[in-house]
Design goal:
The protein is of the alpha/beta class and 331 residues long. It folds into two domains: 4-209, Spore Coat Polysaccharide Biosynthesis Protein SpsA, Chain A; 220-330, no CATH class. The protein contains ten helices and eleven strands. The strands form two sheets. Strands 1, 2, 3, 4, 5, 6, 7, 10 and 11 form a nine-stranded mixed sheet that branches. Helix 6 (180-194) packs parallel to helix 7 (220-233), helix 7 runs parallel beside helix 9 (260-297) and helix 8 (239-255) runs antiparallel to helix 9 (260-297). The longest helix has 38 residues, at 260-297. It is globular.
Length: 331
C-alpha cells in the first residue's frame, strides 16, 4: 500500500484539468498513486494509463460522487483531493504528510493562493460559525499575513485542495450527498471533529487556484443544504450558542449580496432543510457512531456508502470511552 493517493476530479473543463494533471505529474512525490475521476469518457490523449489510474463516472455525476469514487479506488493511507484548475508546486505534499505523523490529525489544509495575484490567499481551510455560516479562512489576505491566518481556528480543508486520513473517511462512508457540493467539506470536517480528530493548516504546503471560490448565492438548494447541515451538527458548538447565533447567520446569508427573489427562495429552502433535518437527522448523525465503532473494531474497510446504521448515533465519543475505561480501572 502506498502512503499517498492523489485524486484529481475532472467534470467538464478539459484545459483546466490538464493543467492540474501536468503540474501534479511534474511535481509528484515518491510512493504515491495518481487517480483521475472523470465524468463521462476521457480519451487520454497523452497515453498516461501507465502513470495514472482512470475512474469513469456517469455523465451526470456531481463533485461529491466523483470524490467518493476516488476514495473507493484509492489505496494510500492519506488521500489528497485536487479540483481541476488547482496547480501543484514542487514539494507541496511533504509538509502536509508530516502532519499525519500525529494520529489525531484527520485532515490537513494547504494554503491556496490566487492565480491572478500570488501575493493573495484564496483560502487556508474553512471556518464554520456557531450560526452556520461557511467562510473561507484568509480569503483575500496578503501572504505576509499567512502566519496570522494559520493561527485562526479552522474546521477543515476545502474540496479544492484537501488532505484526509483515508481510513477515517471510508469509515464515515465518504462525503455525504446530504450536504451537497457546497457544504460537503463542512460536513466531513465536523464529522472528523465529532470522532476526536483535528484539522490543521500547513503553511508550507502551497498550491495555486485559478478560480476564486466565491460563496454561492442564497438560492433554494443552497438554503436547504445549509439548514440540514446546521441542524445535523448544531450540538458541536453548543446548542444554546448555535440557536442564539443562527437567526443572525440566516439573515446575513439571505440579505447580503442577494436579490430579493433569491432571498425568498433561500428562506423556503431553509424551511425544507429544517423539516428534512427533523425527519432524517438521526440517519445523518448515525454514520458518526457507526464510523467510531468500525474504527475501534478495525473493520472500516468493509463499510460501503450505503451501510450506515440508523440506530448507531448514541455511541459515546473517544473522550467519553477513555473516561469510562479510566473509571473501570480505578474501580
Amino acid at each position: 500500500m502506498c502512503r499517498l493517493s492523489i485524486i484529481l476530479t475532472f467534470l467538464d473543463d478539459t484545459e483546466r484539468f490538464e493543467d492540474t494533471l501536468a503540474s501534479v505529474l511534474q511535481n509528484r512525490p515518491e510512493d504515491c498513486e495518481i487517480l483521475v475521476v472523470h465524468r463521462g469518457p476521457y480519451a487520454d490523449p497523452y497515453d498516461l494509463k501507465d502513470e495514472v489510474g482512470f475512474v469513469e463516472m456517469p455523465a451526470g455525476a456531481q463533485l461529491v460522487e466523483t470524490i467518493n469514487a476516488g476514495f473507493c479506488a484509492a489505496s494510500g493511507e492519506v488521500v489528497h483531493v485536487l479540483r481541476a484548475g488547482v496547480l501543484a508546486h514542487e514539494g507541496w505534499t511533504e509538509p502536509a504528510m508530516e502532519q499525519f505523523e500525529d494520529p489525531l490529525v484527520g485532515a490537513v489544509s494547504p494554503v491556496v493562493l490566487q492565480a491572478e495575484d500570488l501575493n493573495r490567499i484564496a483560502s487556508a481551510g474553512i471556518r464554520y460559525t456557531a450560526g452556520g455560516r461557511r467562510l473561507l479562512n484568509g480569503a483575500g489576505k496578503h501572504v505576509k499575513r499567512t502566519r496570522r491566518v494559520v493561527r485562526r481556528r479552522t474546521i477543515g480543508p476545502t474540496l479544492a485542495a484537501a488532505f484526509y486520513r483515508r481510513d477515517v473517511i471510508e469509515a464515515l462512508g465518504g462525503l455525504s450527498a446530504m450536504a451537497g457540493n457546497r457544504f460537503a467539506d463542512v460536513d466531513i470536517a465536523l464529522c472528523l471533529k465529532a470522532l476526536g480528530y483535528c484539522s490543521v493548516v500547513e503553511p508550507a504546503s502551497i498550491v495555486v487556484d485559478d478560480k476564486t471560490d466565491h460563496a454561492a448565492t442564497e438560492g433554494f438548494r443552497s438554503g436547504r443544504l445549509a439548514e440540514r447541515v446546521f441542524w445535523c451538527h448544531a450540538g458541536t458548538n453548543g446548542w444554546l450558542r448555535c440557536l442564539c447565533c443562527h437567526p443572525f447567520a440566516v439573515a446575513g446569508e439571505s440579505l447580503v449580496g442577494c436579490r430579493r427573489f433569491e432571498a425568498y427562495t433561500g428562506l423556503l429552502g431553509r424551511i425544507l432543510g429544517m423539516v428534512q433535518a427533523f425527519f432524517c437527522g438521526k440517519k445523518d448523525r448515525a454514520r458518526i457512531g457507526k464510523a467510531e465503532e468500525s474504527l475501534e473494531d478495525g473493520n472500516w474497510s468493509s463499510l460501503t456508502m450505503e451501510s450506515w446504521d440508523e440506530d448507531a448515533d448514541n455511541l459515546d465519543t473517544p473522550a467519553e470511552r477513555f473516561e469510562r475505561d479510566e473509571r473501570r480501572r480505578a474501580a
